[in-house]
Write a structure and sequence with these properties.
Elements: E1 10-11, H1 13-16, H2 19-22, E2 26-30, E3 36-40, E4 51-58, E5 61-76, E6 79-82, E7 85-87, E8 93-96, E9 101-107, E10 110-117, E11 120-128, E12 134-143, E13 148-160, E14 171-175, E15 179-184, E16 210-214, E17 218-230, H3 232-236, E18 242-255, E19 261-266, H4 275-289, H5 299-309, E20 312-314, E21 320-322, E22 325-326, H6 333-343, H7 350-361, H8 387-401, H9 405-424, E23 431-432, E24 439-440, E25 454-455, E26 458-459, E27 466-467, H10 468-488, H11 491-508, E28 512-513, E29 518-519, E30 522-523, H12 541-544, H13 552-565, E31 567-568, E32 571-573, H14 590-596, E33 602-603, H15 607-618, H16 621-626, H17 630-634, E34 646-647, E35 655-656, E36 660-661, H18 662-678
Antiparallel strand pairs: 1-9, 2-3, 3-4, 4-5, 5-6, 5-13, 7-8, 9-10, 10-11, 11-12, 12-19, 13-18, 14-15, 15-16, 16-19, 17-18, 20-21, 22-36, 23-24, 25-26, 27-30, 28-29, 31-32, 32-33, 33-34, 34-35
């Protein structure tokens, strides 16, 4: 299917040496727990979410910023050179080490910087250990003509990842020869109060202690507060953009060729693995990520396969889940079930798929799986009309790839329970209408579909009534359950599902909008008799899902409408530009952004359903895959190696939202693999 790029992207001095360019490229590494490290290639944090160690203390939630960043400096040939970078609230930069950056690339999944200081070249990499809240900074001297000394200054905190640190906080430090131990709140251990530290306020509840250390060299305790860092991306989002950070001191060591230096930050109670061992494991993981791909898969598909693994996390005490997006989303039911076929099943990560399905099945309540697990570990939220129906699709996709009788037998009774609950009625007005067999959902002030932006009591796209994609999913769920029942010899359950399916399939004909040659978005809006005729992308799912109640001519008309009015290089617009209320740019404060979120903003995850639907009606796999190809270029943009959540509806379709989104990666990857299989070679 083509090979757009077979070597990793290398950004040179033209991008690295310019502040605006270097600060716009981002990188991401994860630990499989929900924790992560991320930042800009410039080295400056432009978001509150950027971190060297963002630990997940109750995996995959309770994300806590422990180490915001590490600034590196070099003493070489009698000169002192800073390699770090920071932006402050008075619009100053100190230092501006990105000017020493010769190149940046993501090498085997690892963000990799090469700095030039005179005739010396220094390689820097950042990575995390799998399954541990532990981050590593690796420095290697590639070339030098004289001894070179490295200093590393970490900036630490102890705060929720959605917030900003203001003031010195309640941090306490203990120092060793090559390490610094950090505690937040609680009673200070004897001798832990360093001379010159900021006087403490009232003691806070003790947090999880963590430590920083180097594999060689020394640590010098020099507690100091740095004030008023500026996070420019937060300012652009209309949010508080200032943060104060504590630095406990400086790590230093001589650097010589062939002897890498590691700085490690860890919140684990056991000793972290040596950096070289972690590197070897990560290299093997990177190689394995593409093992299920066809041998001729282009480099950008291999990048997507690796990126897919970054979203797979443990949900402790037991189970698996999918992080919806980095840097700020946790695991959401809807996102998990949409992403799962692409990030796991299509790549033959079958144990992950089965584990995730079991995890969510345990939380079924009132015939629904959770929409969201809150960040603080509170009870799950069930405000979704589609997440549960997507689970049927994810299970069906899995069983088609890997017949799993045990899982089938485990989940089938739950599936029937779900269908019965939907027929009888469950939360938020979700219930089958006996008049037409269609599923209605929603109450005033709720937002149950994936178009779920809300501020206070204001739901910007409530879509109360019979939403087109909810009913396409309902038909598909009934078909899945009926086929499983037939396979298992469950005649009563099969007849029950087929009866509901027959009625709903007939009722689905009501969605056809003859005047516009496409589907209505919502029928019987707010319980009335009006139908919403806005051109939105939700109708594409009626064609892309396995079960479709439309005629061939209707399917083609839906695809053509979406292609002509919604399609962009990076996804489908959430509303056609000619429609009233269209917003072409996703920017401004929270209210302004949420009001644009589903009113024209482009969603990249919809490229997958569109490409599959296009192939279904036109039968041209190469043409269908061409709709996915622009993502190859995007992987060299925003967050290098991953796919952004959203883009502006208006050209040039600037990337916005989360810089790495699970369903974006999963649906594009799954569509490419499907089209590769059906394409003639």
């Amino acid at each position: 299917m083509g090979s757009e790029q077979e070597t990793p992207l290398i950004l040179g001095r033209q991008a690295c040496g310019d502040w605006n360019d270097a600060a716009s490229y981002e990188w991401l590494v994860t630990n499989g727990l929900g924790g992560y490290a991320c930042g800009t290639i410039a080295g400056a944090n432009t978001r509150r979410y950027h971190a060297f160690l963002m630990a997940s203390l109750a995996p995959p939630v309770a994300r806590t910023l422990l180490v915001a960043k590490v600034d590196v400096s070099v003493d070489y040939l009698g000169g002192h050179t800073e390699l770090g970078a920071n932006e402050f609230g008075d619009d100053t930069f100190a230092p501006d080490g990105f000017k020493q950056l010769q190149s940046f690339t993501v090498l085997n999944g690892l963000p990799t910087w090469i700095f030039a200081v005179g005739d010396a070249l220094i390689l820097q990499q950042i990575f995390m250990a799998a399954g541990a809240n532990t981050s590593y900074l690796r420095l290697e001297l590639l070339r030098a003509s004289a001894p070179l000394r490295i200093a590393m200054r970490p900036y630490v905190a102890y705060r929720d990842y959605h917030k900003q640190s203001r003031g010195p906080g309640d941090l306490r430090f203990e120092s060793g020869e090559r390490e610094c131990r950090v505690r937040c709140g609680g009673a200070a251990p004897e001798g832990a109060r360093p001379q010159g530290a900021v006087p403490e306020r009232a003691a806070a509840p003790a947090g999880v202690p963590y430590r920083l250390f180097v594999n060689r060299g020394a640590f010098q305790l020099q507690p100091q507060v740095y004030w008023n860092f500026r996070h420019r991306e937060e300012a652009a989002r209309g949010l508080d953009a200032a943060e104060d950070l504590y630095t406990p001191g400086v790590f230093s060591a001589d650097l010589s060729p062939g002897s890498p230096l590691f700085l490690v930050a860890s919140a684990e109670t056991t000793a972290p693995l040596a950096g070289e061992l972690v590197l070897a494991a990560l290299h093997a993981q990177h190689q394995e990520s593409g093992a299920a791909l066809p041998s001729g898969a282009p480099a950008w598909i291999r990048e997507l396969a690796f990126a897919a693994g970054q979203f797979i996390v443990q949900r402790r005490p037991a189970g698996s889940s999918i992080i919806a997006g980095y840097p700020w989303f946790a695991d959401w039911g809807r996102d998990t079930m949409i992403a799962l076929p692409g990030v796991a099943t299509a790549l033959k990560r079958y144990d992950v798929t089965a584990g995730v399905l079991r995890t969510y099945a345990r939380f079924v309540d009132g015939g629904m799986i959770p929409n969201r697990f809150p960040d603080g570990g509170e009870k799950p939220e069930y405000n979704t009309a589609d997440a549960t129906l997507w689970m049927f699709h994810a299970l069906d996709d899995y069983l088609a790839a890997r017949p799993d009788i045990q899982l089938q037998n485990e989940l089938f009774p739950i599936l029937i329970e779900i269908i019965r609950a939907h027929r009888a009625g469950t939360r938020f007005g979700i219930r089958v209408d006996p008049a037409d067999g269609l599923l209605r959902s929603g109450e005033p002030g709720t937002q149950l579909t994936w178009m779920d932006a809300k501020q206070g009591d204001r739901a910007f796209t409530p879509r109360v009534g019979k939403a087109v994609e909810i009913n396409a999913l309902w038909l598909n769920a009934l078909d899945v359950a009926a086929r499983l029942a037939g396979r298992m010899g469950k005649d009563d359950e099969q007849n029950f599902c087929l009866s509901l399916l027959s009625r709903a399939a007939h009722g689905f004909g009501r969605f056809w909008n003859e005047q516009r040659s496409c589907l209505f978005d919502v029928l019987d809006v707010d319980g009335g008799t009006q139908n919403d005729a806005l051109i939105r992308p939700n109708q594409i799912l009626a064609v892309s899902l396995p079960y479709c109640a439309l005629s061939r001519a209707q399917m083609r008309a839906v695809v053509d409408t979406c292609a002509r009015q919604l399609l962009t290089s990076y996804g489908l617009r959430s509303l056609a530009p000619a429609e009233p209320g269209y917003v072409g740019r996703y920017e401004g404060g929270p209210w302004q952004r949420d009001s644009a979120y589903h009113m024209g903003t482009v969603w990249s995850w919809l490229l997958g359903p569109f490409a599959r639907a296009h192939y279904r009606v036109y039968g041209d796999a190469r043409m269908a895959v061409s709709f996915l190809s622009p993502i190859a270029e995007h992987l060299n943009g925003a967050c290098i190696g991953s796919v952004s959540e959203i883009f502006d509806g208006d050209p040039p379709h600037t990337a916005r939202g989360c810089f790495a989104q699970a369903w974006s990666v999963g649906e594009i990857l799954r569509a490419w693999l499907y089209l590769e299989r059906v394409s003639p070679h």
